[in-house]
Specification:
Elements lengths: L2 H11 L10 E5 L13 E6 L4 E5 L5 H5 L13 H5 L1 H4 L2 H22 L20 E5 L6 H6 L3 E5 L7 E2 L3 E4 L10 E5 L8 H6 L6 E5 L8 H4 L5 E7 L2 H10 L7 E7 L6 H12 L1
Parallel strand pairs: 4-5, 4-8, 5-7, 8-9, 9-10
Antiparallel strand pairs: 1-2, 2-3, 6-7, 10-11
Helix pairs in contact: 5-10
Length: about 280
């Protein structure tokens, strides 16, 4: 159990004060034809009220487990909060499913409170890059590399995969997270929320001016992350549920059915305020 996971679940437990929470409606997993594509990297949990939450599913045996016969049937009707607890109490596929439920319940809270996360202003975690900046990228985002370099910033990528190591033309890939201590701006994949590397990564980012955590699966409560030094959480809000589910089911791109958001720490109202707003709207 990680501190962040436990704190997120504890916050979500308080939502029971608003009344009964929705149960799990369905698990959505892309078909084998999507393997090797971005679409094939994420599953989604749908709640009875239509709330959806995504989770990365390529760690360990998660994908094989979720594609097992009747994997979805075992989840249908389960209290969403019960499944969310798996994020803090389990590993592997159960942890991934728990995280998807955490994201779905976060979406549920945002809707009940009337809070809509601000739209992202770009793909680089709103880092506002300039010549002289040194970006630490946690997890290689190949499409973003030329965007970073085009700003005149330096780039160091920290990876877990040894097969991508080495110097490049104007940037480098390393296995050593201590190299993040040389960087003044950090762009991290949200996969750190699932692979137990979050605390280690943030421990090397204390000197950074900005720390952005981004990815389609970053739909969770940002409060515990902001308390640990993250300055921006960027994810994807599902704006067209029917189109998203159809695309995921068919293994087709679902980007047109989501809106990328970016929640900045200094402009986020906070969990307690959202809970208060949800209570007020329920009266």
């Amino acid at each position: 159990m990680t501190g962040v996971a436990a704190e997120m679940v504890t916050l979500l437990e308080t939502l029971t004060g608003l009344g009964p929470l929705p149960r799990v409606q369905a698990l959505h997993v892309p078909p084998p034809k999507a393997d090797g594509t971005r679409v094939g990297e994420f599953c989604a949990i749908e709640l009875e009220d239509g709330s959806l939450g995504m989770s990365f599913m390529l760690l360990g045996d998660t994908l094989a487990t979720l594609r097992a016969p009747r994997a979805d049937a075992a989840l249908a009707g389960m209290p969403a909060l019960q499944l969310a607890r798996s994020y803090a109490q389990h590993s592997g596929a159960q942890r991934a499913l728990g995280f998807a439920a955490v994201n779905a319940l976060t979406s549920h809270l945002f809707a009940r409170s009337g809070y809509e996360p601000p739209a992202a202003q770009g793909s680089l975690g709103d880092l506002d890059l300039h010549p002289g900046d040194h970006v630490g990228m946690v997890g290689l985002f190949p499409p973003l590399v030329p965007q970073v370099l085009a700003t005149g910033a330096r780039l160091t990528v920290v990876e877990l995969r040894a097969d991508v190591l080495g110097p490049r033309d104007g940037w480098e890939v390393t296995l050593d997270p201590r190299q993040l201590e040389r960087c003044n701006k950090i762009l991290s994949t949200s996969t750190v929320l699932l692979n137990d590397t979050l605390d280690g990564v943030l421990g090397h980012c204390r000197r950074a001016e900005r720390v952005s955590l981004i990815g389609p699966g970053a739909g969770c409560l940002p409060d515990p992350l902001f308390a640990r030094g993250v300055t921006l959480l960027g994810g994807s809000r599902i704006a067209g549920a029917a189109a998203f589910k159809a695309a995921l089911r068919e293994g087709e791109p679902w980007g047109a059915s989501v809106v990328k958001f970016a929640i900045a720490r200094e402009r986020y109202p906070g969990f307690e305020q959202l809970l208060s707003l949800a209570r007020g709207r329920a009266r």
